[in-house]
Specification:
This is Glutamyl/glutaminyl-tRNA synthetase class Ib catalytic domain-containing protein. Keywords: Aminoacyl-tRNA synthetase, ATP-binding, Ligase, Nucleotide-binding. There is one protein chain. It is built from ten helices and 13 strands. It is an alpha/beta fold and 323 residues long. It has a domain of 112 residues: Glutamyl-tRNA Synthetase, domain 2 (Orthogonal Bundle), CATH 1.10.1160.10. The strands form five sheets. A four-stranded antiparallel β-sheet has the order 5-4-6-9. A three-stranded parallel β-sheet has the order 1-2-3. Helix 3 crosses helix 4. The chain is elongated, with a radius of gyration of 23 Å. The N and C termini lie far apart (51 Å).
């Protein structure tokens, strides 16, 4: 039996938001529920937008949420030689071609500085796959265009690096957001071209706000770090995120993470959009707060009391919580 291997693969171009945290959690839950391996991979192929401090922040927020990883963090930028090797192989085999700034094909079977590489889309083919959440999905290659796999500046594109790294790392399940669904046929073409097995895909439903619009970093309160510094409990945040697209069979929503691991099945995830409800998050957080023992509560609340903290000392009586 093949052991499940999943990966959470964020890009260090922004702070961890609730959508990515939900993806990280569902990968972690799947791995823990089936005795699999949870891989952390930093997809830092976009050199212009990557920031080291954001990588550090991502790792810190995952640690706060309690989502420990079994392997990694691997950095995609450290694997460019491998990505280059695959791009050159595809060129030599005629499955990809050099192109100039006007997207015109240029002859040659080796990488050239200043020229990009495009993968040649097959004509008249259909790319089919079974998605655990969405069911059977099909794309006609005639509706898709040739796509860039190697930039003219000498770096790999996301799709190439993603496919190669998934193959080399033995990823068996790709659990990720629905917004990445359209890229699957291109990744499958690349995996087929390099002779790698296809992972099982599970595309999680979109998270929407009160207006039922997709959550936006600019418009909505989505930063995990912001919730942490405002005093939300990590166990409450994880509990709530688990309910965004999944629910326990007994409908008891508020429970510890260990119980969620026992109950979680990726096959039970719903494909309907999930409403990120701040009021419900506050309810879940309040319930977890009330469940804390007095010593645990005191340990959690102490950093929030003092001259430079949100609560002044004259508004908090520790004697009420003494054991």
């Amino acid at each position: 039996r093949v052991t499940s291997r999943v990966r959470f693969a964020p890009s260090p171009t922004g702070y961890l938001h609730v959508g990515s945290a939900r993806t990280a959690l569902f990968n972690w839950l799947h791995a823990r529920s089936v005795g699999g391996t949870y891989v952390l991979r930093i997809e830092d192929t976009d050199a212009e937008r990557n920031r080291t401090d954001l990588t550090d922040s991502l790792l810190a927020e995952l640690d706060w949420l309690g989502l420990d990883w079994d392997e990694g963090p691997y950095f995609q930028s450290e694997r460019w030689d491998r990505h280059r090797e695959v791009a050159e192989d595809l060129l030599e085999r005629g499955l990809a071609y050099l192109c100039d700034a006007d997207n015109r094909e240029v002859g040659g079977s080796a990488l050239v500085d200043g020229l990009a590489v495009r993968f040649r889309m097959p004509v008249g083919a259909t790319m089919d796959f079974d998605d655990v959440v969405r069911g059977k999905v099909s794309f006609a290659t005639d509706d898709l265009e040739d796509f860039v796999i190697w930039r003219s500046n000498g770096s790999p594109m996301f799709l190439l690096a993603n496919a190669v790294d998934d193959a080399d790392m033995g990823i068996t399940h790709a659990i990720r957001g629905e917004d990445l669904l359209s890229g699957v046929p291109k990744v499958l073409l690349l995996l087929d071209a390099i002779g790698a097995p296809r992972p099982t895909y599970a595309h999680l439903p979109l998270l929407v706000n009160e207006q039922r619009k997709k959550l936006s970093k600019r418009r909505d309160d989505v930063s995990i770090g912001d919730y942490r510094v405002r005093g939300y409990l990590a166990e409450a945040m994880v509990n709530y995120l688990a309910l965004l697209g999944w629910g326990p069979p007994d409908d008891v929503e508020i429970r510890p993470l260990a119980e969620i691991v026992e109950l979680f099945r990726i096959e039970d995830v719903n494909k309907a959009a999930a409403f990120f409800d701040l009021k419900k998050l506050e309810h879940v957080n309040a319930t977890h707060l009330r469940a804390l023992s007095k010593p645990d509560f005191m340990e959690r609340v102490t950093p929030w009391v003092g001259a430079d903290a949100p609560w002044p000392t004259d508004r908090f009586d520790p004697g009420r919580f003494s054991t």
